[in-house]
Amino acid sequence: NAGVTQTPKFQVLKxxxxxxxxxxxxxxxxxxxxxxxxxxxxxxxIHYSVGAGITDxxxxxxxxxxxxxxxxxxxxxxxxxxxxxTSVYFCASSYSLGTGAYEQFFGPGTRLTVL
Amino acid sequence: AQSVAQPEDQVNxxxxxxLTVKCTYSVSGNPYLFWYVQYPNRGLQFLLKYIxxxxxxxxxxxxxxxxxxxQTSFHLKKPSALVSDSALYFCAVRAVGGAxxxxxxxxxTLLAVQP
Lengths: 115, 115
Fold this sequence. Notes:
- Chain A has no helices and 11 strands.
- By secondary structure, chain A is mainly β.
- Chain B is mainly beta.
- Chain B is built from no helices and 12 strands.
- The mean pLDDT of chain B is 92.
């Protein structure tokens, strides 16, 4: 199994550009999520999904869109990039059956710089 | 509201000495608690979790954590530190009975083990 994969690894954008960060998992996990990691702030949840066709906002959703058309894929779209979105982005997935405690599996991250 | 506090930005310890990385939490009801480790330029890796039962939880790489309900703490420990343990450590919490697998992460503690 490849686990959780993310592309690209690095990206530089100009202010106002749009782009999509890709995330895929091959573990048949229901739950997928996007975090951003900034120095001194830990990981903050952007959006999450509990299954295909179901998404919801996390702690810091502004400026980002998501969709979940399949169980495997959960892309994150930046509509109009801003310097404040310079960060490292992590995708994660886990089982989500009932109310069990399932550890999340993380991808390797995408380092995004917005100029 | 759920929250996690990691009061130390950095912990320094000599190789061979015991280490403790502190975590306190706030959640309505009983918690699920997790520790993750992040090595440089990598995604987060799961170390251990507390669900219920024995307050001392054993995890990967010789780490363990002690759940203390009265002090709302879940400190990470290891009897003898290795230089290779140097990394960024995150504590995370989820409320039992929550509808999803949403985790709240602390801000992280950098562990530096000196040879």
